[in-house]
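This part of the workshop introduces the protein records we will be handling. A learned vocabulary of local backbone shapes supplies the integers on the structure line. Getting from the letters to the tokens is the skill we practise here. As an example, a complete record with its sequence and its structure tokens follows.
=====
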Amino acid sequence: MAIRVKLRVRSRSTGKVLEVNALVNSGYETERPELLVPTKVAELLGVWPSPPRPYIAKDYFTTGGPIRNYVLLDEVEVSIVVDQSTGSTMCGPSHLTNRGGSTDKR
């Protein structure tokens, strides 16, 4: 199940601010926080196609083929947008067995 949150993203270079919906993903670990954004979001923040400061280009090999990722270190300030309401969803464990080792499907 995907977890989505609303983020407020502010470019430190341009001062532009956006509120975006984000998918929380722990698919890999990083030493520093990372925020991967679509090209359109980078354009609206004013950091693409002409980055306002030096960047690092990193090449990655994915199942869909090679990609290039442009990284602007410490470029954006990110905060989670919350309201006073809370929500919940029902969920169940993915696997339980009884003491005999067989699965009980009632």
In short: Residues 11 and 76 are 5 Å apart (CA to CA). The chain has one helix and five strands. The radius of gyration is 20 Å.
